[in-house]
């Protein structure tokens, strides 16, 4: 299988794509149901609805979620650490499928509770890990390892990303550019098939609607493109700051654990910290798509954008560093759009910021450019995104030497 995988691998990749797409849809519905229990509504665009609740409700909901997550970390998830994209990347570097049911399902359950209780994180990282577990389980069932295992993994990641975002091209790029480090060429064909299957499942369930609906964007003149340079630079710096704050929180928690603090108990004080931020700035609650779309469609005052960026960075760093579940992708979208809008008043600057933070934090310029198009349904958005992604890629490589995932792997000793 040096060049093209055999028919058996293609068929298994298609089955895994269906399972991963179903997992993405099920996860989205699941955290919506949990969110209804905590807040009284299931819409993932929660900001305006949550802002109407009493401040003490926004304070206490993440605390209650933290107590439940702490119990799950103590009795369900091994090692008292929920898993996400970095674990999927590490799995792809192994020659045998390494993810087992207790770890995969336990991490998904923690993330559903985290997001439902108002934790400031994304839903994409957990479903990527869930898809990696599905790929691992199926590969073990059919005794597939080595290159075949990595092909199946890439198919699962492409499908689950496409089914989460209605973004088949970005899902394909994400699987091959960010997650898979080996055997990308053999994985290309099955990953394309899987991305189409995942996107088809999104269309069947949610319809042909982009994640963010904005005013049409035409072919930009050179002058607007030149103006997005400072927006891309500001967003890239915001993304890099986000990475370092998150790693700083992880260092604090790690130091406390070395001194005897039980790591599984960390979500309780972390939930209190997130709740305190949410009581003042409800924009940090959940995945933040409502706030992201509001900035793209209407814009906001620069002072408010600065406050939102600072609050989102702090709340997400505490959520993820505090042993809650969740992903990093959605916070990147909000931070990037807000940072771009802070510098540039038009939608081009916001979209440039989106691509810049995705590139700087996740280490995927192609993913960031394609995501900007597919999330908005605006192909000319890629022109703004390409400028910003180039800036962020160069800056991020010079400052960090890689993405947040490679930095986490280095700290964990797996890279």
What are the key terms here?
Clc chloride channel; 415 residues; mainly alpha
Query: What number of domains?
Result: 2
The helix-and-strand class reads mainly alpha
Q: Rounded to an integer, what's the Rg over CA atoms?
A: 20 Å
- CATH architecture assignment of the largest domain: Orthogonal Bundle
Measured by DSSP, the beta-strand proportion falls in under 5%
Under CATH, the homologous superfamily of the largest domain reads Clc chloride channel
Provide the CATH top-level class of the largest domain: Mainly Alpha
Major β-sheet, in short?
none
How many angstroms does the end-to-end distance come to? 26 Å
Global morphology: globular
Helix coverage percent of residues? over 70%
Order of helices and strands: HHHHHHHHHHHHHHHHHH
User: How confident overall, as mean pLDDT?
Assistant: 87
Uncertain ranges: none
Helix segment tally:
18
């Amino acid at each position: 299988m040096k060049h093209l995988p055999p028919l058996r691998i293609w068929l298994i990749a298609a089955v895994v794509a269906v399972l991963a797409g179903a997992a993405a849809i099920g996860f989205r519905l699941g955290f919506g149901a949990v969110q209804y229990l905590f807040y009284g509504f299931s819409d993932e665009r929660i900001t305006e609805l949550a802002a109407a609740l009493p401040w003490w409700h926004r304070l206490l909901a993440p605390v209650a979620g933290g107590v439940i997550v702490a119990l799950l970390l103590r009795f369900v998830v091994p090692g008292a650490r929920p898993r996400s994209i970095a674990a999927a990347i590490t799995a792809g570097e192994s020659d045998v499928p390494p993810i087992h049911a207790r770890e995969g399902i336990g991490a998904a359950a923690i993330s559903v509770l985290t997001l439902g209780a108002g934790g400031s994180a994304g839903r994409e990282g957990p479903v990527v890990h869930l898809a990696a577990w599905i790929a691992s389980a199926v590969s073990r069932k059919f005794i597939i390892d080595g290159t075949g295992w990595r092909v199946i993994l890439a198919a699962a990641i492409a499908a689950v990303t496409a089914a989460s975002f209605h973004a088949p091209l970005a899902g394909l790029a994400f699987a091959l550019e960010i997650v898979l480090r080996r055997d990308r060429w053999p994985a290309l064909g099955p990953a394309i098939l899987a991305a189409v299957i995942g996107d088809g499942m999104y269309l069947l369930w949610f319809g042909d609607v982009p994640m963010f609906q904005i005013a049409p964007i035409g072919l930009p003149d050179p002058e607007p493109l030149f103006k997005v340079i400072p927006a891309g630079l500001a967003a890239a710096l915001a993304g890099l700051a986000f990475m370092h704050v998150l790693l700083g929180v992880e260092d604090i928690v790690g130091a406390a654990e070395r001194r005897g603090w039980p790591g599984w108990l960390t979500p309780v004080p972390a939930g209190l910290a997130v709740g305190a931020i949410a009581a003042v700035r409800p924009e940090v609650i959940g995945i933040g798509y409502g706030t992201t779309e509001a900035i793209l469609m209407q814009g906001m005052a620069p002072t408010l954008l600065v406050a939102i960026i600072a609050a989102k960075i702090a709340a997400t760093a505490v959520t993820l560093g505090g042993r809650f579940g969740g992903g990093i992708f959605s916070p990147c979208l909000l931070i990037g759009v807000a940072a771009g809008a802070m510098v540039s008043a038009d939608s081009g600057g916001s979209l440039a910021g989106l691509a810049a933070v995705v590139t700087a934090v996740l280490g995927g310029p192609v993913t960031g450019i394609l995501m900007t198009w597919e999330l908005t349904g605006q192909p000319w958005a890629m022109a703004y995104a390409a400028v910003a992604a180039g800036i962020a890629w160069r800056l991020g490589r010079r400052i960090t030497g890689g993405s947040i995932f490679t930095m986490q792997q280095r700290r964990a000793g797996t890279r």
